[in-house]
Write a structure and sequence with these properties.
single chain, 11 helices, alpha/beta, 260 residues, 2 domains, 5 strands, Rossmann fold, five-stranded parallel sheet
């Protein structure tokens, strides 16, 4: 198994176990947290109504469903995700909302072949987990119509993201464990550096590359307890506290509540 295939297999396992359960359990809170990013994508998309759109790493479907709702009868959305659990959640959400011009597919987007060329590819924090980024984006580009567009929302560096820094600092206040993001490994901050994103997209064959930094206010909860629960359930926090005694976890939780 080549390294990229191995990484993708690990991501499939990760996103079909506890991480998927977290996203499904916290779906409402996470959709609210990430809504400003979806708003930015929708604004940049400037949809005409009849586009064929693919949402890469669609998760539980929030962005795909909002795009589908903005299209007319000729428009259609495909949501692609490697997680069967998240795809099932997205399908249920579409059925409950009565949105029919969207389909959700369990697949590895790095290897996916579109039956029909797309006018627009979008992703809300769903493209940072490929084993081979250049190959993945090269394949995605081939799924676009001539003149088609790619719109991505990805996280900037950790130090610019308070939603990430705050819970990390709460853990570090009581533990010697430190989080050091690996920018070269699949993860939230893989595409945090502008130069890397520009070089990646250029190498993959994209043209007219435009990057912009945005700093929207993110909603982390209606109450202190709700926000603290969301932070404590984050994969990065669970990893740092893995094996920690209950008393330590309780101190971290209390510190979060006091700081919110």
């Amino acid at each position: 198994m080549d390294p990229a295939t191995s990484v993708n297999a690990k991501q499939r396992e990760l996103w079909n176990t506890q991480t998927a359960d977290y996203w499904i359990r916290q779906k409402s809170a996470l959709d609210k947290l990430l809504q400003p990013l979806t708003d930015l994508l929708l604004e940049a998309a400037n949809l005409a109504g009849s586009e064929q759109v693919a949402d890469i790493g669609c998760g539980t479907g929030a962005t795909a469903l909002q795009i589908a709702s903005a299209l007319d009868d000729g428009g259609h959305v495909i949501g692609i995700d490697i997680s069967r659990k998240l795809i099932h959640s997205a399908v249920r959400a579409a059925e409950e909302a009565g949105i029919n011009n969207v389909a959700f597919i369990e697949a590895d987007a790095a290897r996916f072949e579109f039956d029909k060329a797309q006018d627009l590819l979008v992703s809300r924090c769903g493209v940072m987990f490929f084993g081979d980024l250049v190959k993945a984006f090269s394949r995605l580009r081939k799924g676009l119509q001539p003149g088609g567009r790619l719109l991505l929302a990805v996280w900037c560096s950790p130090e610019t993201n308070e939603w990430y820094q705050f819970p990390m600092q709460c853990v570090e206040a009581f533990s010697e464990t430190r989080d050091s993001p690996d920018y070269d490994a699949p993860g939230a901050f893989t595409l945090a550096k502008e130069a890397r994103v520009r070089d990646l997209l250029d190498t993959a064959g994209f043209k007219d590359i435009k990057l912009a930094s945005h700093h929207p206010t993110l909603f982390v909860g209606s109450t202190v307890d709700e926000a603290a629960e969301l932070f404590m359930a984050m994969n990065s926090i669970r990893t740092l506290l893995h094996g920690a005694e209950d008393a330590l976890q309780e101190r971290v939780l209390q510190h979060m509540q006091e700081g919110l």
